[in-house]
Design goal:
Length: 374
């Protein structure tokens, strides 16, 4: 079922105030067409409990073109992006320079910010914002073979946190879960990294990835959707956009609109929160920061507040931004957020008589819809 909120419906010659019509998916197309013909205005279409994301029928009146692929191209010129400078057979050996917790008292689990010095390589290991690197943990697996590499999204800009152009930082959560026998299991590589001491040597591969590159346009709009450690690439974008030293070093002065949606279980689990609050106060016209704190806030249905609930809340504004060919959307973190985000966008598109199932591939093709979820 869908709820259609309508303004300007008239009956018996009298204009009525806003009304909400509840219709099934099968009726949605014809009801919306009739509303359009009557001259009334559709304010919003929202899925009601249990409704799965669907391809919403297209409806006149004349939908605006949402994408202009040619105008939106591309992120950082792909050809200049370094890839696989170091491979697993011959990794670069970096040195840990710092390893500290990103969490506040009372947080759940362990999440650390870990920095490696990259000096001395030939070639020098370098990267751009939005890429990942591989880490090969010390030791052997249960079969006595060396561990395989694990990929982590890079959390520092190409200049590194100290702007010396020779470090890389990661934001790592220690994986922990109970197996079927009820034993507590800790992730091999994430534990290796969270426990590592400054001075230790670590095998690093990469960089890899061209999915999450930032647009070069200083006037681009960037919508970021992150859960947990999925914040890593977003931190790099926001530093590049709003840190004074970065703006100076890059000569790239972001003037567009950036909007970060961040999902965390508790306030104490928010990552890099102070930096983002500072950017918000320094650049109120350019940066907006919206949090979904799942175990402290409730969604309108009384459940945990997830990032897709925030996207539903602001779907119309987000959709209006997406209609601008300068807008890019980045999603990183838990795969579970994707269906809810699609559902919210389906409803927002339907309110404009557009079909999200058709639009999303167009955005993807135009390199404006960037997803890296696990
Ligand atoms: P976390 O802190 O455990 O959780 C982040 C938030 O997401 C919590 O508020 C959690 O809520 C919420 N959440 C749980 N299920 C959700 C769902 N279906 N939809 C939306 N939100 C949901 O996160 P984390 O352990 O750091 O995990 C982040 C994930 O991102 C990991 O799977 C990691 O592998 C992945 N990741 C991917 C990349 C990448 O693709 N490049 C990079 C970094 C991380 P509750 O726990 O309260 O239910």
């Amino acid at each position: 079922m869908f709820a259609i909120e309508v303004a300007g419906m008239s009956g018996a010659g009298v204009k009525r105030s806003n009304e909400v019509l509840k219709v099934s998916y099968d009726q949605l197309n014809s009801v919306m067409r009739n509303i359009g013909r009557s001259g009334a205005r559709i304010l919003r279409v929202t899925p009601i409990d249990g409704t799965q994301p669907v391809a919403t029928p297209t409806t006149p009146p004349t939908p605006a073109p949402v994408t202009t692929p040619a105008a939106s191209k591309p992120a950082t010129a792909h050809a200049q992006v370094p890839v696989n400078l170091y491979k697993p057979k011959n990794p670069f050996v970096g040195t840990v320079t710092e390893n500290y917790s990103l969490l506040q008292d009372g947080a759940i689990g362990r999440v650390n910010h870990i920095t490696f010095n990259l000096e001395g390589g030939d070639p020098q290991l370098h990267y751009v914002e939005g890429q990942s690197i591989g880490i090969i943990p010390d030791g052997e697996d249960a079969k006595g073979k060396p561990h395989k590499l694990r990929l982590y999204s890079i959390a520092s800009t190409r200049h590194g946190d100290d702007m010396a152009d020779n470090t890389v930082s990661l934001c790592v959560r220690q994986l922990e879960y109970k197996n079927e026998a009820g034993e507590q299991i800790y992730g091999t590589c994430s534990t290796f990294l969270c426990d590592i001491e400054p001075g230790a040597k670590v095998k690093i591969t990469g960089p890899v990835g061209k999915e999450m590159l930032l647009p070069e346009d200083e006037e681009a709009n960037v919508i970021m959707l992150a859960t947990g450690t999925g914040i890593a690439p977003m931190r790099t974008y926001l530093r590049r956009m709003f840190e004074a030293k970065e703006r100076e070093a890059n000569g790239w002065k972001f003037r567009g609109k950036a909007w970060l949606f961040m999902g965390a279980p508790k306030t104490a689990n928010l990552l890099y929160d102070e930096d983002f609050l500072r950017y918000e106060s320094e650049y109120p016209d350019n940066f907006r920061y919206t949090k979904a704190i799942s175990r402290e806030q409730q969604n309108p249905k009384g459940g945990r507040m997830y990032i897709q609930d925030r996207v539903t809340e602001y779907a119309d504004e987000i959709f209006a931004m997406i209609e601008d060919p300068k807008t890019h959307v980045y999603m990183c973190g838990l795969r579970g957020m994707e269906p809810g985000i699609d559902e919210a966008m389906t409803a927002a598109a339907a309110a404009k008589g557009l079909d999200w199932a058709e639009l999303r591939p167009q955005l993807k093709k135009a390199e404006r819809w960037h997803v890296e979820t696990y």
